[in-house]
Design brief:
It is a single chain. This protein is mainly beta. It is about 5% helix and about 50% strand. The protein is built from 1 helix and 10 strands, in the order E-H-E-E-E-E-E-E-E-E-E. A hairpin with a 2-residue loop joins strand 8 and strand 9.
């Protein structure tokens, strides 16, 4: 089973546990992209930190995870956690009010603002301490 581990605020942890919150969103940045996405270009898959070919259309694909381990609380000792099924994952390129792609610069390189949306299923395991 492929499990992604993420930290989350207590409020959202409780909402997921109760079933009120069914989606978890994360901003995709150059510094964290390799844990969320891969690129497809010219029929080949590339990791987010690999150099892409100069030409060709690029598709962004979410990395397939079966579940997300969500941790909350202080970064010491045994933290409360739950493991939640991932039903689906979708990448969205963010746009401004005019519908234009939002572009940021990181270390002199431009990148599109994007987020990943995980559709959450049932809680598979929990440790609330």
């Amino acid at each position: 089973m492929e499990i992604l581990t993420l930290s989350i605020k207590q409020k959202f942890f409780d909402e997921i546990l109760s079933g009120k919150k069914t989606h978890e969103y994360r901003e995709i940045r150059p510094t964290n992209a390799k844990k969320y996405i891969t690129y497809f270009c010219g029929g080949k898959e590339y990791k987010a930190d690999e150099e892409l070919p100069e030409e060709g259309e690029v598709d962004i694909k979410p990395i397939k995870y079966d579940a997300i381990k969500l941790l909350t609380g202080e970064y010491k000792g045994k933290r409360p956690y739950m493991i939640v099924e991932v039903k689906d994952a979708e990448v969205t390129i963010l746009t401004d009010e005019g519908g234009k792609d939002i572009v940021y610069t990181h270390n002199g390189e431009e990148y599109l603002a994007a987020q990943i949306d995980y559709t959450l299923g049932k809680v598979l395991e929990k440790h609330i301490g």
